[in-house]
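ENTRY TYPE: paired fold submission
RECORD: A
CONTENT: sequence, then structure tokens
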Amino acid sequence: MLYLIGLGLGDAKDITVKGLEVVRRCSRVYLEAYTSVLTVGKETLEEFYGRKLILADREEVEQEANNILKDADISDVAFLVVGDPFGATTHSDLILRATKLGISYRVIHNASIVNAVGCCGLQLYKFGETVSIVFWTDTWRPESFFDKVKKNRQNDMHTLCLLDIKVKEQSLENLIKGRKIYEPPRYMSVNQAAQQLLEIVQNQRTRGEDPAVTEETLCVGLARVGAEDQKIAAGTLQQMCTVDLGGPLHSLIITGGSMHPLEMEMLSLFSISETSSESQSIDGL
């Protein structure tokens, strides 16, 4: 059987008891290593689990999934995912491949950023569609996701922004020449995401559009959710450009147009500043 096991968001001990029991009896254990990361490394996980882990990068999972599924019809194979197994569509693809090969599967769930963002006090049922913010390059500066932010704001829904992770990425030159040389890992910070968002806002104004988000829109920055050194900061989008939340992983929330009093009271615990001009969203922080 193929087991997809969520590891939670913090460290080695966040795996469920059920998940740990499965890991310890599987013939092979893969660790998905590109959609997210824990606060501890592979060696720490191996020591706690008592098992050797096989790192599975994007290429392995997306292009050579049959290697992972090999003999899973006659033995147990575990595929470990930071957060919850269904936090990325890649893992749904792995299940579909297994099913076509006649391999049974089982999912062991865990906490993910999608539900753990409730730690800041915003109510989960008031979140709209989640968006991803990617690193811009000199030639690629996508803004299309902003339409979803606008729709969420119009519906008084919060937007969870998942920030880009670059792990085992090749430069264009190395990719063209077929050289297996990889760039150092990069993890987008709340500051970088806020700066790109502000540029999109300014671009929309230049085009004569009325942006759904401004410099004074209330946002929430989160870092290392689930870890002991978790950080949360609530303030304007402009303030998010300079707030220091430390190391990865970061997430950003753009709040909806109106707030429940309990949400406002909770966010006041994490307020960067006591004053802001967008009184509807930030009054009371």
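RECORD: B
CONTENT: sequence, then structure tokens
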Amino acid sequence: MGSLSKQDQVEWDKAEYANVNWDELGFSLTKTDYMYVMNFNPDQAKFSQGTITPFANIQLCPSSGILNYAQGLFEGLKAYRKEDEEILLFRPEENALRMKTGADRMCMPSPTVEQFVDAVQKTVLANKRWVPPHGRGSLYIRPLLMGTGPNLGVKPASEYTFLVYASPVGSYNNGELNLLVEDKVHRATPGGTGGIKAVTNYSPVYKSLTQAKAKGFSDVLFLDALTGSNIEEGSACNIFILKGNVISTPTADGTILPGITRKSIMELASGFGYQVEERAIPIEEVFEAEEVFCTGTAMVVKSVASITYGGKRIEYKTGADTLAEKLHATLTGIQTGLNEDKLGWTMAIH
């Protein structure tokens, strides 16, 4: 916090909550006070000491790797406020490890796990007054790793910037989750970047998503590129199906993002006594499922109300008695400190 002026520090210490209508928070950017910036030093082949700086626009060379060749990664995680005002992070080391995996695929240097977690902690503490009151939202944290050095030719950048900013958010999707199966456009291909959180993964789904929303759907469910017959994931979420005592989810083998919420839900469901399996799931099995739900950092866990494919619409059970609701309550209870964290997933920051 060394870059805060004395006056800023005094005001920050006094401020308990920002002037926000917490009950009207959606999932959009609310500019907070500070961000964290750390630059890679190519001469020393390591990241320099990062600093907390006022939230502001950044300058980039028009020829930077992120702008010209999309050499970039991002992560997403949340900070929650407990009833006693303590603030919890949820499994930040998992985000750090996923960024390291992605950085290796994109030929980028990556912060160490310790640097990543320290940056996230400092960003949350600097924006402490923006962490919503208990039960009224969360502080969404967005770490970015970007190739910022200039390149005219196609090659990895020589300079990199690691940046962390945050925004208070409410629910990602308040309405029903009605999915349209996309059978012409594919989100990822084997050997591509579908299994890492690369910036390249998201804008290619915009057209399918926009068209689906224009028809009244809330998201798109993509099929695999090889056979066009197996489900993979939504535009920004993993998917699960329930039949009997078996919960199935597509295998994260390079075309599916290994979600941290996904991983956590698999562990919780196993603890509930369900058989949890990762495998190829033909689209036909989705129509035989008793329950379908999606997971992700933004939405946490949410029941799917319907899936439409080839003009056929199947509706699923939603509401209080669903497994999705039980998993959601259990996971958010851990994240917000209402449930005992027996798995060591949360990290208190002060």
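NOTES ON RECORD B: Confidence is low (pLDDT under 50) at residues 10-14. The helical segments are 6-14, 65-69, 92-105, 113-126, 206-214, 260-271, 283-286, 323-335.
STATUS: closed
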